[in-house]
Amino acid sequence: MIDRPRAVVLLSGGLDSATTLAIAQSRGFDVYALSFRYGQRHNIELEAARRIADRSRVTRHMIVDIDLRLFGGSALTDDIEVPKNRKPEEMAGEIPITYVPARNTIFLSFALAWAEILGSEDIFIGVNALDYSGYPDCRSEYIAAYECMANLATRAGVERKQRLKIHTPLIQMTKAQIIKRGLELGVDYSLSHSCYDPAETGEACGQCDSCQLRLKGFREAGVSDPVKYLGKTLEEA
């Protein structure tokens, strides 16, 4: 049996990370999935991450505990209301309160550490710079800068045993394009979860930025979103 190259894939449980995992596997990587219990408002997304990792038969799925509630400052980690029913031009404007300060920097640091231990040169992250909520740590400039830093910051990089590459296969794709690519690869989006403010029973709110961008993507892709939305049909959401 030929050994496949290992890759660490950041897996949140959402649509983008599920697609990114499938892309990594389609490229022949042996996937080690990494998720975080970071003090987010709910654990539904972690349940989704477990389902996706199990269905995808990743080699290992690790869930790391860190507590960003200590700092707060985000509607995802603090007692701050999640914005609802924002218009596209609002989403394209200022950075929203759902931005978690330095989250991707923190997550990539853990991925970098695990990749070095695994002897992996490849990290996958599902950041997107088109249909997204304006987060600064989803931009290509940020990823390029982080990759440069990562190769200066590890023993493996300095000794030139590894040359780390951060893969961002979705960064210039619309949500519709992401969904179509995922469906081509057999992603089961009913396993995923994207909502920032779901009901206690698990239904997505259908009104937060993440829900609206997800629903827009499915409409433009010409397929139905298989997840449940609170008190609404898919046509109403």
Core attributes:
8 helices; Rossmann fold; disordered C terminus; single chain; globular; alpha/beta; five-stranded parallel beta sheet; 237 residues
How would you characterize the overall build of this protein?
With 237 residues, this protein is α/β, with parallel strands linked by helices. It has one domain: 3-Layer(aba) Sandwich (Rossmann fold). Helices cover 36% and strands 11% of the residues. It is built from 8 helices and 5 strands. Strands 3-2-1-4-5 form a 5-stranded parallel sheet, sandwiched between helices. Strand 2, helix 2 and strand 3 (60-65) form a beta-alpha-beta unit. Helix 1 (15-26) packs across helix 7 and helix 7 (175-184) packs across helix 8. Mean pLDDT is 90; it is low at 233-237.
Present the secondary structure layout.
Layout: E1 6-10, H1 15-26, E2 30-37, H2 44-56, E3 60-65, H3 88-91, H4 103-118, E4 122-124, H5 140-153, H6 155-158, E5 165-167, H7 175-184, H8 209-221
Parallel strand pairs: 1-2, 1-4, 2-3, 4-5
Helix pairs in contact: 1-7, 7-8
